Structures
1.
Amino acid sequence: MNDKITKALYRAAALTFEELGFMFPSSELDPLQKYASVDAQGCVDFEGPYAGRLVVRMCGGVLPVLAANMMGELEPPGQKLQSDALGEIANIICGNLLPSLAGARQVFQLKTPRPMPQDEPLPPVASLKPTAEVQVGLEEGRADLLLYLIDLPQE
Amino acid sequence: MALNVLVVDDSAVMRAIVIKTLHLSGVALGQIYEAKDGEEALRVLDENWVDLALIDINMPVLDGMDMIDKVRQNPETADLSIIVVSTESSETRIENVQRKGVAFVHKPFTPETLRQAILRATGVIDERQDHKSPVSGSGFDF
């Protein structure tokens, strides 16, 4: 089940970065991408057939370029809009991912995406491990996606 | 006929994406208004002539579904063409939206997808139908 979720998470993320941000995602990371440090992180919490959180971390200076691409601007927008862009990315990935896991007729309530301070714990519940985790190579950085499901769906 | 369009989304980035896609769609545009929630959108509708509203569902203050109900209850705006633009993928939710007499476009979307939804929602005739594609061959989604 976790392998299925991991594949679905990568697909949803790759599609979103490609179509919304005009970036070419790769699953194989080069050393520059692999060791890039985290610049910003955000999350979307959700409830429904199962509850949880999707965390998106942007690394290696990707976010300013991504935000500019999304808005059709040549120059990166300010910090507030970059944070807004990260929230939209998380929201769209999560919105596309959940029905593909739970079934097309299932209804989830997605909370408003929000930025996460670097020192905030990633899981929605202390010590909860990610159900699925993927890294997507983007230009000279990467995006980390961590999906936490509080009630892990059964096969 | 140039359409006056209202774009309602609490995300400034998403409003920018929608407006960029509107321009790429080839639809004749008049004035474009923006609102960050349903309540602000109702004020814009009260003060301006709008032909089409593109509305997100999940917004603070007054969400998209409640805004649509208020628009439909007001005789001045009851017939407004509305397209919901959302990440919502649940068929159940999408059917609920469509029962309110509005169209639905899923994020991410292409300029062509948006164009077709606008033409269906407004009944505007596609004057470019026999001419070149509105997006000059771009396969990009937004």
2.
Amino acid sequence: MSSRREPLWRRYLRFFGPDVDADIEEELRFHLEMRERQYLASGMTPQAAREAAERKFGDFDRHRRRLRRQDARRLRRDHWSERLDGWRRDVRFALRTLGRQRGFSLAVIGTLSLGIGATTAMFSAVDAALLRPLPFPRPRELVELRNVEVPFREYDGQEEHPSGAPTIRDAIALGELFSGVGAYAVGGLNLSGTGTPIRIRVGVVTTGLLPTLGVRPAFGRLFLPEEGNPGNATVALISHGLWQRQFGGDSALPRSVLLNSRSYRIVGIMPQGFTFPEGIDLWIPLTIPMTFETFEPFRGAILKTVVARLSPGASLDAARDRMRQLWVRLPAPERGESREVLTDPVRPLQGSLVGERREPMLILLGATGLLLLIACVNATNLLLAHAATRERELAVRAVLGASRGRLVRQLLAQSLVLSVAGALGGLALAAGTLRAVQGLLPKGMLDIASPHLDLRLLAFAVGLAGVTGLGFGLWPALGAARTDAQGALKSGGGHGATAARRGRLRRTLVTAELALALVLLAGAGLMLKSFATLLSTDPGFQPERVAALQVVLDGSRAERNANRVMAVSAILERLRGRPGIEAAGAVNDLPMGDQIRMSIRVGVEGRPGGEGVEPIFARYLMASEGYFRTLAIPLVRGRFMRETDDSLAPRVAVINETMARTVWPGEDPIGKRFRSGGREGFRTVVGIVRDVRERMDEQPEPHTYFPISEFAPPDVTIVARGALAGPDLLAALRRAVHEADPTQAVYNVRTLADAMSRTLAPRRSNTLLITVFGLLALLLSLVGVYGVVSYTVTLRQRELGIRAALGASRRDLARMVLAEGTAVAALGIGIGLVGAFALSRVLRGLLYGVEPTDPAALFAAAAALFIPAILATLIPARRAARANPVDVMRSE
Amino acid sequence: MAASLDVLRGTLDLLILKALSWGPAHGYSVAEWIERVTDDTLVIEEGSLYPALHRLDERGLIEAEWGLSGNNRRAKYYALTTAGRQALKTESASWTRYAEAVFAALSAPASLKPASV
């Protein structure tokens, strides 16, 4: 058959892959030609022979097309299976190799698991809060309209209308921009009529809210438009959960429920899992306008959020412009505090639900990213060390004809195997820490989208594994494949140019690792210092041994202020004489709570307000004298309120030092008079108390306390200080309230210390996480430092031996090695400090009372890294000191 | 030619394998061989011959190589592989059994007619 071989040139063409089309054409043409020949031979004329052959052959083009399709399919299949086979072989090879070097493999996998696990866990939170869309139809259309008011009927048309902001009516009128507008507020109400009264979270929503979100009830119907008018709003929707818990999932629902003793008719049950905005069990209509009557139970503790759905054609920018115009039409002084709102009056709903947690989450994700980077650098380092041990093997294979591409692919397969194992470890780690991660999310977000392990997360981890595998594997793989085979074979590995180059590379990597670790440690140092500062901050009161609970003095029995005042006084009376209770008091709102703070605009007697005068707002609270004694808030001057300061007595107020300073700078405020806005009469300042912080990380604001004996809000917090320990004190407090009124529902029972610690929880978890990340980074980089220094000692064994032979003392040898470690550490830390400086602004938002360039914190971070780094070099340094010339000579 | 029959697909594969059992050949000579040995009773459609050849190649029963034909023309030669040789053996055995069975049925004596119920 050799005579029939195709010409050589044709084979060169094959080098670029078979030319399928030409082959088919040629094959078929040959067939035709042969047939024609046959007919010619049988005596036909050339013309007739050709025609007969073509007739016999049929549709040439169709046959050709069909073959072409068939061959192309085959070619593709071959191509892929060939590749797959190659990779499969390489992966098998990698598994075998790695199985033999278990220590090395575990070190790399462990390192990567840490990095990937931390990053994946953080990503799960970011994914749930920021990336995953809200579980409503077309969630991108949903926006929050900021500072849009729902007007009060009682204020309608009054000059004093609270802020002069645009109202929800203005937004509803913008039909071309918004296909739906709704508002909601959250509060607590007592559900009664079914055994023991329970406290439930209630969503007060305009009739437009649920249609705007695009939700439908599971049973029944949503609110009708007319049920949003004052007077008709006595209908309720209940959550699936409440239906199951309170009504046993019975289809024969009670037709009505009592909420704070008012009757509401149940018109529908919402679908399972719907608790918008957060943990809501029951929804009642928020009327437009609101009325004092329906709003009474929430007064003083309710904040409305206005939500809109953008019309299909409307853009966020258009909505912003339009809402801004609504603001601008108002006179300037009314816009005083809303300048910030003016710049951003419309926000995507998702972003506004996440709120202030967004920044820490992104920073923490960044921190895990740094950790992952360190982990990758560490893995690269380990692989480089590993490559040194395989140098000879690779050189042999290169000499035996393995192509460079093949070697690179094989080494990459190895690092991919390692990173996939790392990803699995990381996922396990992430799954284990998911609960901790949930603490990072705002409460409302947890209801809507909680982080959990799913395919997205899996894809994320696998993606990370792929990227890291390439990232940390490519360099060593290319380096190893470049190995100078002859040199390696001659020297027996571990010496020569390749080894030296690898040593330099590893030093560079460790320097980078140290720099990255320092950035994380600096962050940890700053966060720790902030937290310590925060803990040592004086809140202005003593939270120890103080318990609190809330009661609702509800409508039917305490509709009138006088009745409520009496109820409060009765409870306090009960508490006063009890053994173990040292002091008790009442207030409408405790510090360290998450209630909405109410403020008044301070109108000082004899001072004109109006244009050009910066308005002063003061937080206003209603308290009894016992409140100050219970929380140990010291009186600075004057007197506390007394129980005789009732609604008939001349009006008085106690103010805090900040208010004294702000409103009456350089004057004695005692005896001065002010009023709330322009509505009520003037009241006299009778006492000044120490500042109290609302939250540990906030500066004190002006506060004014009105006597609770003058006006008692429906929602009152009772506080008591006792000699008892937490749970006993809580029980005593609960008992006293129960004795005063057995039908009274109490809720939000807590010790003040707990409440305080809760307000610190986000900061605590942020600090903890960054610190953990910093420590892990420290650990990883120490491993790196140790590895690289000990590697150089091995490399320089011969040199060290010669030096010893020439008379260098052990101390000299150790010092040489130490010097190298110190140089690497100092350089890495120096670069890290520069990086920490550059990134300092990122962290500013998370810090309290500490500058992001705080020298003490940065120095501590540097020391925390430097000292262990030096210690890590001591071990190889001692080995260097033992270098023995005789051994070295022998080993050659 | 009037009596020529279309060749069933499985049968065509078998015939191709048989044609190649004498040594490598190009598509035309496979077709020509079949027509010749069956006295033109079986006519090979070019539209199915070449797909069958390529399919057999893909299945590894035959392999293709370009060579020069007797008149110095480039032609694609097909040769049986070991697997092809094996397939030919088993396939022709089962085909023969099948054909004999059909033939036995068709030529059965009247005494063996189906039982009437």
